[in-house]
Amino acid sequence: MERDYEMRKVPHTRFAGHRDKLNVNFYNSGKLLVQGRGTREFVEFVLEPEILKEARLGYEAEINPDFIRPRLGVDESGKGDFFGPLVVAGVYVNESVVRHWQEKGIKDSKRVTSDKRIGELAKIIRETPGCIWTVVPIGPEAYNRMHNKMRTVNKMLAWGHARVIENLMERRAEMVPPPERAISDQFARSKSIVADALMELGRGIELIQRHKAEDDLAVAGASILA
């Protein structure tokens, strides 16, 4: 471990090393903290092959801290058919949920090639401990009635996303830890269309809309349920 590393004295550690912009601290409790540029390379080329003797660690938490943050994910299906149905789904995830989903192969529904597999993944999502989920279906009659009133599919989608977020936030007492934000795909040119549709509880959480939001595992999970 000492090769190429400048050893330092850090309280409560068995050893602490620094090299370039990488810090490696091994605490008396048994916790290993790796931070800085080169984290992935350290895990891949030192920790796994020389210490663990196997490749079994993920890098998401180090490279993308948002991966493990508690959050809501929202997605929809069926928006292109005037006769419906339109389905909007949402999920709450925390670190244990996303790590479980990653192991089980949860991904954006557009990347799943069979309805059977969609059903299998949906069952995994619904049965994952700690996951809170909701589905808001809008059948053909309601779809056409809402379309006649709202005139645009985007306004219907905005209502659906807002309703799903509200449903989830009504169960926030069950969410441990509480969600920090809600993430959804940006389906309209203006982000304000969803923001303006948010209901009472939904206004109390940060809303992030972005293109290709299905890359986020929470949104991918919602896409499976929808």
TrEMBL record:
EC primary class: hydrolase
Domain RNase H type-2, chain residue ranges per copy: 69-226
Cofactor requirements of the protein: Mg(2+); Mn(2+)
Keywords: Cytoplasm, Endonuclease, Hydrolase, Magnesium, Metal-binding, Nuclease
EC id: 3.1.26.4
GO molecular function: metal ion binding; RNA binding; RNA-DNA hybrid ribonuclease activity
Alphabetical list of SUPFAM superfamilies matching this protein: Ribonuclease H-like
Keyword Metal-binding: yes
CC per GO annotation: cytoplasm; ribonuclease H2 complex
Main location: cytoplasm
Family: Belongs to the RNase HII family. RnhC subfamily.
Protein name: Ribonuclease HIII
Organism whose genome encodes this protein: marine metagenome
